Amino acid sequence: MNSVALLGQYPFRLSSTFCCAIHSARPQRRTLKGRGTRHSARALLGPDAVFSAATVAVIPLYILMVAFPKASITKHILQPGHFYTAAAALYSGLLIAWWPAGIGQLCKGAFQGCSPLPDVHVLAGAFTNAHVTALAWVHLLLLDIVQAREVWLDGLKHGVATGHSVILCFMFGPLGILSHMVTRRMFRARLDSSQASSAQGLA
Q1: Is 102 left (phi over 0), alpha (psi -120 to 50) or beta?
Q2: 162 within some domain
Q3: Mind telling me which residue stretches traverse the membrane in this protein (predicted)?
Q4: Within a 13 Å sphere around the CA of 114, how many CA atoms are in the beta-carbon half?
Q5: Are 131 and 104 in contact (CB under 8 A)?
């Protein structure tokens, strides 16, 4: 009798144990899922990912300015409202997100080392932090593309070719501006010479 009763209760015990195992596993699955989501977010906002993504993201903008300077899509993407808002939002977002990673403390240390000018060795030490390096890289990329955009706009305004100068602005911003200044002066000199020749021919 006891054996029969035990056998009759055994399936119930198995089902109860199985249900308890399922219920206990559900929170663990949620926890693992939450951890995975947070890990993915950290990976996307990590300095390695941001460094690579920012480098790749600016290339299409340079291609548009060089290959399609007068296209409507180029003018639409690089109009001040869209361009400067996106650039400011990106930089501000990274600065806020990475501030707890030590950027604030490193900036404080760099300014404390000023006597009265910043010390290059103190700043060099700050760049051993991957977040600082990635943020500085984004900073440089944005500065270069702002200079390239101004060169491109000035070329459209005065009818001057800017492809070579825009390319120089990529990584060598000041050289791109200098190249555009020289190109514009040469274009103006050629235009004046052409107009003078035309006037002499008419006379």
Answers
A1: left
A2: yes
A3: 43-63, 83-101, 162-182
A4: 9
A5: no
Cβ atoms of 163 and 187 closer than 8 Å: no
In a domain, 163, yes or no: yes
What confidence tens digit (pLDDT) does each residue in 151-198 have? 999 999 999 999 999 999 998 999 999 999 999 999 988 877 776 666
Closest CA to 135 of 95, 182, 79: 95
Task: Find where tokens 């009798």 sit.
Answer: 1
Q: No. of H helices and E strands in the chain?
A: 9, 0
Assigned domain for 27 exists: no
C-alpha triplet 30, 33, 34: angle, nearest 5°: 85
Phi, psi of 119 (to 5 degrees): -95, 125
- pLDDT tens for 96-112 read 998 887 787 777 777 77
Domain for residue 26, yes or no? no
- State the residue range of the domain holding 185: 48-202
List, for residues 133-145, the tens digit of each pLDDT value.
999 999 999 999 9
Give how many domains the chain has, as a whole number.
1
> Residue 133 contacts by C-beta under 8 Å, 6 or more apart in sequence?
47, 51, 127
- From the list 56, 78, 54, 49, the residue with the least C-alpha distance to 66 is 78
